[in-house]
Amino acid sequence: MPQHQLMSFEHIERVVRALSHVGVNKVRLTGGEPLMRSGLPDLVRRLSGIRGLEQIAITTNGMMLQEVMVDLKACGLTHINISLDTLREDAFQRMSRRDGLDRVLAGIETAVASGLPLRLNAVVLRDVNLEDCIPLVRFAVSKGVTIRFIEFMPLDADRSWSQSQVVPGNELRERLEAEIGPMQEKTGVDPSQPSRDYVFLHGRGSVGFIDPVSQPFCGNCNRLRLTADGKFRNCLFGREDWDIMSLLQRGAADTEILDVASRCVEAKHPSHGISEDGFEPPTRAMYQIGG
Questions:
Q1: pLDDT (tens digit, 9 = 90+) per residue, 218-259?
Q2: SS3 annotation, the chain
Q3: CATH code of the region 3-289
């Protein structure tokens, strides 16, 4: 996307600051790949100065993290998610369409060394990386971090999604218990988080399952997305957006920004409908919305 179509850091800060006055206390920078945005630590610094924000997180593929981790932490980053679907280079290239698994692993090491809370995210496709789940759990345990497995969603850029490739979270949990040991679901977690988290009863490690296809969690969702080109979206699978960029460019008041955000939230559907007849995926792929 041409740079002139992207929201400026000033505009992003302005929107987040307005939303912070009405209860938004967590921000996640995602994509696409957020570390490709030049000067990202400066955006983190700007956001860290907003009173009321309790968490500034990033979701990244980790390939560029080693170079900027120190700056991100110094500027106020509080949490990190890194995508890691496999530990095999051939499967990595098939899923990401690039090489560079070694760079991702180096980024993970840098993130672990930072001391910030870190989670690994793995999207599971039945015929591609299902066999990697056990090694991924053992890898996460060895690093002292949580890994979360995410069901394959119809948001891929090449529209190749198929129900046959989805591995339901319950099936995967049974596989992990058979190989590693019994698990118990954690209690006292934030009900709005998309993940159901478990701990192993006879050893170290915790695993999360994000199951939007087999067990939708729409009823507890409290997320609002702001796209890179200045649109509010109320659901990953929504087909509508609410323009905020034009308001910002003409110097709109906070009340106008909040009015658009409110209308977006009020229009949120009770369910995204992946499993329903007639479901149509959004025109934007995941990387254009923000995972």
A1: 888 899 999 999 999 998 878 889 999 999 999 999 999 999
A2: CCHHHCCCHHHHHHHHHHHHCCCCCEEEECCCCHHHCCCHHHHHHHHHCCCCCCEEEEEECCCCHHHHHHHHHHHCCCEEEEECCCCCHHHHHHHHCCCCHHHHHHHHHHHHHHCCCEEEEEEEECCCCHHHHHHHHHHHHHHCCEEEEEECCCCCCCCCCCHHHECCHHHHHHHHHHHCCCEEECCCCCCCCCCEEEEECCCCCEEEEECCCCCCCHHHCCCCEECCCCEEECCCCCCCCEECHHHHHCCCCHHHHHHHHHHHHHCCCCCCCCCCCCCCCCCCCHHHHCC
A3: 3.20.20.70
